[in-house]
Design brief:
It is a single chain. This protein is of the alpha/beta class. It has seven helices and 15 strands. Strands 1-9-8-7 form a four-stranded mixed beta sheet. A three-stranded mixed beta sheet has the order 3-2-15. A three-stranded mixed beta sheet has the order 4-5-6, covered by helices on one side. Strand 13, helix 6 and strand 14 form a beta-alpha-beta unit. The longest helix is centred in the N-terminal third of the chain and has 17 residues.
């Protein structure tokens, strides 16, 4: 079932099957990271502006943060000619079936031709890790950018799906059939928030960070319907500091771009612990913490 409007909404979290939290984190080395083209508004002033030495140090600090939280990174090597491959949330959607104890990934169909060649490297990686590798139907004319736009609701077999810029709404019909999962589809209406992971950050089953300006009225109503506490992020922190591109891997600690003071104060008020990281070099390409990792089972 695909839900796009609140009037048709009949989901209750306590009736949705549970999903164990993923415990492993994939990180891709930034060996070839740079801004070489413009495919989102954040890149427009930053072509050739990446300090690669600083980017490496920032990436190592992110790796250390996950290690400190007992999420041991699994590394993928970045490839020459694919400067955005470091944003490893985008090329796949990992999934897990508790009933059969099986795990797999659905491969993305990247909207931008500059990123299409990233996907086969991740297909090979997951095959070698023993995952079932699935694809959308060949005859489906639709783009899909993995966990850039498709987010699991923490602890539940439910997907949030963003569409409008990178992912086609038709992709969610296919995903719903493939994974037998309900999907809440949210239309994105601001190009600065080109992926769902730039404007919605589920922290746990009850709390989420949200950039309200990214959604239409129907989208905001759907988010309000399923999260007990919606923490609205100040627009400048969401838009320019990627506060919603944070990640809460354990329901307690929130890895977030440093300097998001308003967001961090609200997180502390709700008993979360902000872990500030500097991802400024990667923000030049339009991504921060959430984009730079992929959680897997």
């Amino acid at each position: 079932m695909i839900y796009q409007t609140p009037d048709a909404f009949d989901l209750q979290l306590d009736r949705i099957p549970s999903l164990p939290p993923p415990r492993r984190v994939v990180l891709t080395t930034p060996t070839h990271f740079d801004v070489e083209y413009v495919i989102n508004p954040h890149m427009s002033e930053n072509v050739g502006a990446v300090n690669t030495d600083v980017a490496w140090q920032q990436w190592k600090a992110l790796r250390a943060a996950y290690t400190a939280l007992d999420h041991m990174p699994v590394l993928v090597n970045g490839q020459s000619g694919l400067p955005d491959m470091v944003f490893c949330a985008n090329q796949t959607l990992p999934f897990y079936d508790p009933a059969s104890d099986s795990k797999g990934v659905v491969l993305s169909r990247m909207h931008s031709e500059q990123r299409a060649d990233e996907v086969p490297y991740y297909a090979r990686f997951f095959e070698e890790e023993g995952y079932a590798v699935e694809t959308l139907p060949e005859d489906l004319d639709a783009d899909f950018e993995g966990m850039g736009d498709a987010l699991w609701h923490p602890g539940h077999h439910l997907l949030w799906g963003g569409y409008g810029y990178r992912t086609s709404p038709e992709a969610y019909e296919a995903l719903g059939d493939l994974l037998d999962v309900p999907i809440v589809a949210l239309r994105l209406v601001d190009p600065d928030y080109y992926h769902l992971d730039t404007c919605l950050c589920p922290l746990d089953a009850r709390h989420a960070l949200v950039a309200p300006e990214a959604f239409d009225d129907a989208g905001r109503a759907l988010i309000d319907a399923l999260f007990e506490t919606v923490i609205e992020v100040p627009d400048h922190e969401a838009r320019h500091q990627f506060a919603c591109n944070a990640h809460c891997p354990d329901g307690a600690h929130v890895l977030i771009q440093e300097g998001c003071e308003g967001t961090n104060a609200q997180l502390r008020n709700h008993d979360f612990v902000p872990v500030e990281l500097d991802t400024s070099e990667f923000m030049k390409s339009g991504g921060s913490v959430f984009c730079m990792k992929q959680m897997i089972w």
